[in-house]
Amino acid sequence: SRWPTPHALFLQLKEQHPQNPIILANLAWIEAHDQRPKAAWEIYQQALSCLCAPHFSPLQWDGMEDFLLPFGAQAMYLHWQRLQFQWGNQPEKLADAFRQLLLWHLLLLGAELALYSGQADYAMQAYENAAALFPELNFTKALKAELTLQMGKYNEAIDLFSAYLQEDALNHRVWLGLFT
User: How many whole angstroms separate alpha carbon 149 and alpha carbon 143?
Assistant: First the structure.
């Protein structure tokens, strides 16, 4: 094939930028979806370590277009735009907000990876932590409600879906959760 596979591309990017948590998050996602959960988990842990390292500055890029967005990052991109508008003239606050946004994304990825290996409690804690970081990104609550339903806690799941429905009545995940 003329084009590299996503896996090959992100392995190459990882070699060039081994401390970039976004590249690592993308690679972990690819590893998981290619049925390599152990490699995915190890790379996810590396991404968390890089994000928490004191030398990491999320503002080393001029904007989100300067690096590859994590897979499924539409909400992250839109929220990043809002944070830039809110904190754009205060670089330290913007860097902290962006670091928290990256952590939010990594927590969701970690929950997904934990679910692949049957670690529902870890996934639930990750969803709760993500929801606490950015309550306004309320679809995280829908993910928590879905997991609660999968765990067989039906009454609690109905309560979570119903509460979420009050916040976002147009989200199809809520309706699917309530009526499946």
Answer: 10
Whole-angstrom distance between the N-terminal and C-terminal Cα of the chain? 42
Using a cut of 0.85, tell me whether the model's pTM lies above it. no
Low-confidence stretches of the chain (pLDDT < 70) are 1, 60-73, 168-180
C-alpha span between 52 and 103 (Å, rounded): 9
In 3D space, the residue among 114, 167, 120, 117 whose CA is nearest the CA of residue 142 turns out to be 167
**CA 156 to centroid of chain Cα atoms:** 24
Residues 6+ apart with CB under 8 A from 99: 51, 56, 58
pLDDT score, position 1: 58
Placement of tokens 């968390």 in the chain: 48
What the block records as the tokens of 59 is: 């503002």
Q: Which two tokens stand for residue 142?
A: 């829908």
Do 52 and 5 touch, CB atoms closer than 8 A? no
